Amino acid sequence: MTNHQKLVLASHNQGKLKELQKMLGDHFEVHSVAEFSSIEPEETGLSFVENAILKARHAAKVSGLPALADDSGLAVDILQGAPGIYSARYAGNAGDQANNAKLLNELKDIPEQQRTAQFICALALVRHENDPMPIICEGIWQGSILFEARGTNGFGYDPLFWVAEQQCSSAELSPELKNQLSHRAKAMALLKQRLTI
Ligand SMILES: O=c1nc[nH]c2c1ncn2[C@H]1C[C@H](O)[C@@H](COP(=O)(O)OP(=O)(O)OP(=O)(O)O)O1
Ligand SMILES: [Mg+2]
């Protein structure tokens, strides 16, 4: 048993859930929204923040608990920020492999120096479904897009994301190191400051 406050994570992405759970486990009794509902709200927002808020509200509604959502994605400079908020749906709903293949194809003629990109994460915490003042924290992680996949850790676009400081892809980082460097880690550090935990 724990006396920790309950918090529901408003995500159906196992990779994200693992990372968020690791970052929050000491401070909250963490539940996944999947324990309460398998329905995923449509991500109709035009920004990461809007989508994070709508996912958080939905999770708070179905669980009756405070909810934290993460809306995140990859913004590639030469593609004017695409795939951006559409990162999960870049190749339709065909999954990470198809998304990565599409991205590599879009960038096939783009030289190394012009392949800069950012991972972006918006976290939204609502105390209840109709919370008029969600807590919002964002994080950005600079990198560039490789010419082929490297590494097997992580999820999503990790095998294509080159982390210059570490001279490896994000999928070659240990989970512990990714959790210190990533867009999600930066947003979470701000959230912890806000919550003074
Ligand atoms: O650290 C990351 N490492 C690799 N890829 C990542 C990362 N962070 C976000 N991404 C990619 C995955 C997905 O293509 C999109 C998130 O889309 P996003 O809608 O926020 O999440 P999702 O639909 O997978 O799960 P859910 O909405 O239930 O939280 O960006
Ligand atoms: Mg999503």
UniProtKB/TrEMBL annotation:
GO terms of molecular function: dITP diphosphatase activity; ITP diphosphatase activity; metal ion binding; nucleotide binding; ribonucleoside triphosphate phosphatase activity; XTP diphosphatase activity
Keywords associated with the record: Hydrolase, Magnesium, Metal-binding, Nucleotide metabolism, Nucleotide-binding
Sequence positions that bind substrate: 11-16, 72, 155-158, 178, 183-184
CDD domains: HAM1
Catalytic activity entry: ITP + H2O = IMP + diphosphate + H(+); XTP + H2O = XMP + diphosphate + H(+); dITP + H2O = dIMP + diphosphate + H(+)
Cofactor note: Binds 1 Mg(2+) ion per subunit.
Enzyme class of the recorded protein, top EC level: hydrolase
Active site: 71 (proton acceptor)
Cofactor requirements of the protein: Mg(2+)
Assigned EC number: 3.6.1.66
Pfam families, per database record: Ham1p_like
UniProt-annotated binding residues for Mg(2+): 42, 71
CC annotations in GO: cytosol
rRNA-binding among keywords: no
Single GO BP term: purine nucleoside triphosphate catabolic process
Function: Pyrophosphatase that catalyzes the hydrolysis of nucleoside triphosphates to their monophosphate derivatives, with a high preference for the non-canonical purine nucleotides XTP (xanthosine triphosphate), dITP (deoxyinosine triphosphate) and ITP. Seems to function as a house-cleaning enzyme that removes non-canonical purine nucleotides from the nucleotide pool, thus preventing their incorporation into DNA/RNA and avoiding chromosomal lesions.
Assembly and oligomerization: Homodimer.
Family stated for the protein in its record: Belongs to the HAM1 NTPase family.
HAMAP family in the cross-refs: Non_canon_purine_NTPase
PANTHER family: INOSINE TRIPHOSPHATE PYROPHOSPHATASE (PTHR11067:SF9), INOSINE TRIPHOSPHATE PYROPHOSPHATASE/HAM1 PROTEIN (PTHR11067)
Name the UniProt record assigns to this protein: dITP/XTP pyrophosphatase
Native organism: Entomomonas asaccharolytica
Gene of this entry: rdgB
